[in-house]
């Protein structure tokens, strides 16, 4: 009864129940799944139950015994991390690239806890953990590569258009230039300074965004690139693209005011309202993706000590 209950709790990620069962029946921690003979922490890794796996951090020196246990096929804990996560766990994460990132995070975390001599140990089929990971995640890696390339290609086009527009706007300033001095007609206007600064920021931000997306498109797309390199570039690319769109709208609004609105102040109201539309649209459409990227790349992560209470 205790054995079936602890495996059920492990699969569901209910670490508090696991703690209670082990506290009442200490020997049940050595229980294994029939036939495959997979121990508790193997099941936790295979089912991607991070809350149960984190209990290792609350264990005494007994944890080294559990880290080196192998199942009937000679798979150790790192082999289990190399297996593809259950579909319901992958579906909790949006985008194949972020799913691949989470799988790499799991593999690296388990690898960190393992004894160095066990990290390249082969199972009975002669496969190392790294070989298992590569085989199991081949399709997900291809899907992640396609997803991130499609996203980058779309954003590259937008960034290139903004670079072109902002560069042209810097040369052909609103109102033109004075014939005798060559200085802009509206150079003494405060709003012109707003235009100039906004145009420059938008140009530099869009150029940075363009370079980031180009670097993504020319990446080698190795498995480890999905861990931090590609997400970081995508974060910088999306962040600077948002910045360039925002300041492009500010520069456009300043131009309209300089040309049409100095004697008609009411023009500012509809212009400001319409200028907010593309910025707001970008926030609603792309900000959730940007927030997920920042959280999964720079956030506290899912692997951490949950309490100071000793576990076995």
UniProtKB/TrEMBL annotation:
Q: Which superkingdom does the taxonomy of this entry point to?
A: Eukaryota
An annotated GO cellular component of this protein is: membrane
Domain PGG span(s) in chain numbering: 145-259
Gene3D superfamilies found in the cross-reference section: Ankyrin repeat-containing domain
* Native organism: Erythranthe guttata
**Short name of any one Pfam family annotated for the protein:** PGG
Q: Where are the transmembrane segments?
A: 155-173, 193-214, 234-259, 265-285
Any keyword ATP-binding? no
Disordered, as annotated region? 112-135
Which keywords does this Swiss-Prot/TrEMBL entry list?
A: Membrane, Transmembrane, Transmembrane helix
Under which name does UniProt file this protein? PGG domain-containing protein
